[in-house]
Write a structure and sequence with these properties.
Blueprint: E1 4-13, H1 17-28, E2 33-37, E3 53-54, H2 65-75, H3 82-102, E4 116-117, E5 134-135, H4 141-155, E6 159-162, E7 164-171, E8 177-184, E9 190-200, H5 227-234, E10 239-240, E11 245-252, H6 262-265, E12 269-271, H7 279-282, H8 292-304, E13 316-319, H9 325-331, H10 333-343, E14 352-361, E15 365-366, E16 372-375, E17 383-390, E18 395-396, H11 408-430, H12 443-450, H13 461-475, E19 479-480, H14 482-499, H15 513-537, E20 546-547, H16 555-558, E21 560-565, E22 570-575
Parallel strand pairs: 1-2, 1-9, 2-6, 9-17, 15-18, 19-20
Antiparallel strand pairs: 3-5, 4-5, 7-8, 8-9, 10-21, 11-14, 12-13, 13-14, 16-17, 21-22
Helix pairs in contact: 1-4, 1-11, 2-3, 3-11, 5-15, 13-14, 13-15, 14-15
The chain binds flavin-adenine dinucleotide.
Residues 13-19, 36-39, 41, 44-46, 48-53, 141-142, 165-166, 201-204, 219-220, 223-224, 227-228, 258, 260, 360, 392-394, 406-410, 413 line the site of flavin-adenine dinucleotide.
């Protein structure tokens, strides 16, 4: 059967908040836009976001975008690019009002304004009050946002390919991106989508780390396998700052489901086995609302020093029971459900056992504040790849630098999803025709799919997948050293060799999820190597990257972004953009909370 083809102005890979916000911008501008998602759009991981989205609306405390910018630069441990951070913080209020008009049912204050709660890393020093910057729809904010955006896209007539798996980007000889080869999961047939522009919005890669062991868990959906990042790598594009992976301080111990930072924002706090509020020792001012890297390391240290709770002293407790039943019911109904379902406890009357859990990737596809994918060209300035864009968790703009603040990712995906949409509209005005696609430009993508038609005995996907996760957690976790990561790289090289021997037991076509899992595992392998290589190279501690052998931040040598290229596992570096757009730069200072 010949390969089916479809043509669109614009192709968007991913139907999370980033993909849907971009699609809406394009559909409203009357571009023909296709959105491809490997799951039904409203099952994208954005749906799981709990706590909220940051914007300096000043509904609860004094606030403005400049303070938000300062907190974000400080939170990033000065690795964030300040032009992009300024752009995002300035855009935030309008983005939230826009959501409200799309139908997001934000929680309300008595006076009818949007409810805002304090979150980690938000400054405290304005008149001594804690800033309350995180706009929330109870603790189901992502759910509300994703459903509203999906409905708006249906109204605007965006074309959806639900349950289609993107395999690879298609590039011509000049490096222009012409669309993507995708797989119809239901029929098992490939489909070629040709487009004048392609936006990668495929989300994060939390599945690098294990689920369901006592001490190693992640909060991410099973679909978060970094597919778009790996597609970029195979197209010769590097990944930026992959050594920075965020561990969220409060996953349910031994299980990993997230308990939102909003629980601490509402007044919850952590205690150790002695009943002590230990965060007072690590972050005397911000205490439980210090940034996530700081709180996660503090919990890990308490446990390592023997002050963990429970028979195995392997977790700490998060108390919200003192807040009263009414606050828990009104502001934290989702985490109450989660605790009842998975722990059989009611957090309104009992503390929650928690432990840090793998949560968010700060690194990703290098992009700028217009959503364009940018790559270094010789010694000159970086250049945008024609027709290719990236937004959301898979992109590295870089807003979050070495550590993301809670509530800033929902903002990031919306601001830069929208910005990418606008940039694409401009590009489409100047590039009105599809470029010709030669058969040879399809070969690599087709081969990648056909490789899984080989049946027979061999290594198994699930075995390799759990070996990969074990290597990541034991060689690239919260605390890192040279020797351990060096061994980790060797272990990954061995896994790569074994990957060539993997075979599927089931070679049928119709809804063959084994084939999809195999393609996802290949993607995770490359991302694991990017993460480990960049982590081994960075000889300092900054944000989420904590080196036992290099405990200090080193601005004179390491205030720079890493770039990992798949070809020859090569690493390069590029400078941080320290100049904002209109205000003065925030120079690096010691980071204390
Ligand atoms: C439990 C949890 C709670 C969170 N809470 C908050 C919060 O309160 N505030 C905050 O700011 N941030 C929060 N975050 C982070 C934030 O939700 C995510 O970073 C963000 O939603 C990612 O959005 P996205 O659009 O980039 O990707 P996603 O929402 O992950 O969507 C990715 C899309 O790509 C598609 N896709 C991926 N690979 C393929 C492929 N190969 N082919 C086809 N489609 C593909 C998927 O189907 C999906 O549609 C939370 C994260 C988690 C895990």
């Amino acid at each position: 059967m010949s390969l089916q083809r479809r043509h669109f102005d614009s192709l968007i890979l991913g139907a999370g908040g980033a993909g849907l916000r971009a699609a809406l911008q394009l559909a409203e501008a009357e571009a023909r836009v296709a959105v491809v998602s490997k799951v039904f759009p409203t099952r994208s991981h954005t749906v799981a976001a709990q706590g909220g989205v940051n914007a300096a609306l000043a509904n609860v405390s004094a606030d403005n975008w400049h303070w938000h910018m300062y907190d974000t630069v400080k939170g990033s441990d000065y690795l964030g690019d300040q032009d992009a951070i300024e752009y995002m913080c300035r855009a935030a209020s309008n983005i939230v009002y826009e959501l409200e008009h799309y139908g997001v049912p934000f929680s309300r204050l008595e006076n009818g304004r949007i409810y805002q709660r304090p979150f980690g890393g938000q400054s405290q020093n304005f008149g001594g009050d804690q800033a309350s910057r995180t706009c929330a729809a109870a603790d189901r904010t992502g759910h509300a946002i994703l459903h509203s955006l999906y409905q708006q896209n249906i109204r605007a007539k965006t074309h959806f390919f639900d349950e289609y798996f993107a395999i690879d980007l298609i590039r011509d000889a000049e490096g222009v991106i012409l669309g993507a080869l995708v797989l119809d999961i239901a029929s098992g047939e490939p489909l070629l989508i040709e487009a004048k522009t392609t936006l990668i919005a495929t989300g994060g890669c939390g599945q690098l780390f294990r689920t369901n062991t006592n001490t190693n868990t992640n909060t991410n959906a099973h679909i978060n396998t970094g597919d778009g990042m790996a597609m970029a790598l195979r197209a010769g594009i590097p990944l930026q700052d992959m050594e920075f992976f965020q561990f969220h301080p409060t996953g349910i111990a031994g299980k990993g489901m997230l308990i939102t930072e909003g629980a601490r924002g509402e007044g919850g706090y952590l205690i150790n086995a002695e009943g002590e509020r230990f965060m007072e020792r690590y972050a005397p001012n911000a205490r439980d609302l210090a940034s996530r890297d700081v709180v996660s390391r503090s919990i890990a240290t308490e446990i390592r020093e023997g002050r963990g709770c429970g028979p195995d002293k392997d977790h700490v407790l998060l108390k919200v029971d003192h807040l009263g039943e009414a606050v828990v019911a009104k502001r934290l109904p989702g985490i109450r459900d989660t605790c009842r379902t998975f722990l059989h406890i009611d957090p309104a009357s009992e503390p929650i056992p928690v432990f840090p859990t793998a949560h968010y990737v700060m690194g990703g596809i290098p992009s700028n504040r217009f959503g364009e994918v940018v790559v270094p060209v010789g010694e000159g300035p970086e250049e945008a790849i024609p027709g290719l864009y990236a937004a959301g968790e898979c992109a590295c703009v870089s807003i979050h630098g070495a550590n993301r603040l809670g509530g800033n990712s929902l903002l990031d995906i919306l601001v830069f999803g929208r910005a990418a949409g606008n940039r694409i509209i401009d590009y489409l005005k100047q590039n009105r025709f599809h470029r010709p696609m030669s058969e040879s430009s399809l070969e690599a993508a087709m081969a990648r799919l056909q490789r899984w038609d080989q049946a027979g005995d061999g290594e198994r996907v699930d075995q390799l997948s759990s070996d990969l996760k074990r290597v990541m957690e034991s060689h690239c976790g919260v605390f890192r050293t040279e020797q351990v990561m060096h061994e980790g790289i060797e272990a990954l090289q061995q896994l790569r060799r074994r990957m060539a021997e993997v075979r599927l037991n089931d070679s049928s076509k119709v809804f063959n999820t084994a084939r999809v899992e195999a393609l996802e595992l290949e993607n995770l392998m490359d991302i694991a190597m990017a993460t480990m290589m960049a982590a081994e190279a960075r000889q300092e501690s900054r944000g989420a990257h904590s080196r036992v052998d290099y405990p200090e931040r080193d601005d004179s040598n390491w205030l720079k972004h890493s770039l990992y290229f798949l070809q020859d596992d090569q690493l390069e570096f590029k400078p941080v953009r320290t100049n904002p757009l209109s205000v003065e730069s925030f120079p690096p200072k010691p980071r204390v909370y």
